[in-house]
Amino acid sequence: MGARKVAVIGGGPGGLYAAVLLKRLDPARDITVWERNAPDDTFGFGVVLSDETLGGIEHADPEVHRALRREFVRWDDIDVVHRGHTLTSGGHGFAALGRRTLLRILHERCRSLGVRLNFRTEAPPAAVLAASHDLVIAADGVHSPTRTAHAAVFGPSLTSHRCRYIWLAADFAFDAFRFEIAETEHGVVQLHGYPYAGAGPEHPEGASTVIVEMREEVWRRAGLDRCDERESAEWCAKVFSDALSGRPLRSNNSAWTAFRTVVNDRWSHGNTVLLGDAAHTAHFSIGSGTKLAVEDALALAACLEENPALPDALAAYEAERRPVVASTQRAARASLAWFEDLAEYADQPPRRFAFNLLTRSRRVTHDNLRLRDPGFVAAVEEEAGVPPGTPPMFTPFRLGGLTLRNRVVVSPMDMYSADGDGTPGDFHLVHLGARALGGAGLVMTEMVCVSPEGRITPGCTGLYAPEHETAWRRVTDFVHARSPGTAIGVQLGHSGRKGSTRLMWEGIDQPLPEGNWPVVAPSALPYRPGVNQIPHALTEPELGLIREQFVRSARSAARAGFDLLELHCAHGYLLSGFLSPLTNRRTDAYGGDLAARLRFPLEVFDAVRAVWPDDRPMTVRISATDWAEGGTTAEDSVEIARAFAAHGAAAIDVSTGQVVPHEQPEYGRSYQTPFADRIRNRLGVPVIAVGAVSSWDDVNSLVLAGRADLCALARPHLYDPHWTLHAAAEQNYTGPGAPWPLPYQSGNRTPPTGRTDAPKPRLRLG
């Protein structure tokens, strides 16, 4: 078997456990661990491990698992304490133990197996060890010297975040995982606390980890940047004296730190491999970095066992762990961002606040919280005014003068299926009619273009000719007659520099092979240099003509019977092009700072609002970030939303990106919703959240937490036109928020499947 001589740099839990597993799998292996600190030196106090991780440990090394079980403290509850309210949610299931205890167990196991442990010894450089060993495991932490020495290969990216935190301990055991919020004269401060030791000789009243965290500017205003370790612990104990019952906090080389997210392009270099914090970090608010490191060790040992060739084993290890870590890091980023913006949620009602905190990472949802603690979720729903037996997604919402029967929106989706002159046809009647019959509260058209030159492709629909209005009237009449209670909205836009391209399935954003029309933009910058046309930079008189095209189309949309109009200011199309500094390089009144870049989109909005019926709402779709350096930022998006709301937008439809081709989105489940959340809770403006919202559980979670008022779903409605009705059926909901069309009522229950049970054996012999 390969990797007979192994060096482990770093004596933390991940490195030690990797040594244990590799030695167990092959007792003949020569394994040495180097640790610069003494055996009982450690930073931090308690370690939380999930049942999943413990299951892996039990399977791989029952002896370590038995030792851990003897030391664990277990509990089920989470307490959220804010403004005098303590809200408790149960059924969560945690296990923790002291970090020193964990290290002692692993030290003893290493020695019993014959692993050499070198303490107070700096490891030779990884390159030196690699020359004399078959395998070098770099488990040397967040500041990994190995990663730094070979940065050109590993490609590390380190991102520092906006809060400062400190690890402390209390000499008694909390009876729950405790999140407590303190609103001080300096700003909001939060406590994360959990027990890690029960009462015993070492800790007569048990012990708890206490992490205190706050924004950098709060930390500085409080003068903590000038406090030593003792003074910091005393300050924290005073702020949270009620939680601590007046007891002190204990430190252990504790220092205020800004959390850093570590990501690497590669995890191995020759026969050297990164493990744990050296390879990746995840914010402590969703769990322990120790958990990830131990899971890394399990995966690495398994891959080495399954793949005789070392390069294959290391490639398999990275392929197995990278998606798991990426998912964890996405959840961790969502969680840490929530705590960074904690002050924005402070005024939420107490139960909503607690629910919002518990679901912040998007891993815990409405449905699994309801399974864990139905009473807690029922209380949150009652506080929010949700009728009994009604999922939050099926509560009505008033948007200007329009009341929607539920919170589901069929998101605008380009279909590229119009006649060559922009006229919607039978396809659009069937497509939009089917989604309207499917139960959504609001069905949106694709981007409907205000001129022939404003189309993206020859297959895009328009509202610039009389026959367009007639064709759209056919669609709205069908929706209103056959699906009463469903609203239908039109999204008006102009393609700008992204126009004159092929149908999506013929080559997205590729120019037409023939028959191209000229394209226009704020500045003469092509979407893809050398591929797309160089657009004509619009003059002020030409801006006036385009503004009038929007007005003409809005009048036509009103006559066509649409209930809502959305102005498309996202995704790099014309109005979006004015908003982004990456696409607007003008030096006149329509370019420069954000206020100037907003000028033309706001002029169009005002002109359209002036002719759009007062009793029908207008919304605006924006790209809340360009996902590119130097582009629109999340903070910019708040100001953009503020401006449109001040001009009369009933809601902001918050999307992201598609402005520049070199964008780097951070994809993941509901990945765009934090941008909507920020706008809603900072400005108090209704928002429509969009972006990989794919389940009814996601919708319920976002609405009940107060992160969104409406949720727009695109691909789920392509997969299932009756997505909303099926969501109601799956939740056993039959109320007014999701009425089945009369012809479909006999299908309002999930069809039975083939029998999956079998008769149980009547006799058991032997």
Task: Please characterize this protein's 3D structure.
GO terms for molecular function: NADPH dehydrogenase activity. Keywords: Oxidoreductase. Residues 5-329 form the FAD-binding domain. Pfam families: FAD_binding_3, Oxidored_FMN. This is NADPH dehydrogenase. The protein is an alpha/beta fold and 766 residues long. It has 26 helices and 28 strands. Strands 19-20-21-24-25-26-27-28 form an 8-stranded parallel barrel, surrounded by 7 helices. A 7-stranded mixed beta sheet has the order 6-5-11-12-13-10-14, sandwiched between helices. A hairpin with a 2-residue loop joins strand 17 (397-399) and strand 18 (402-404). Helix 14 crosses helix 15 and helix 22 (634-646) packs across helix 23. It is globular, with a radius of gyration of 29 Å. The model has no long low-confidence stretch (mean pLDDT 94).
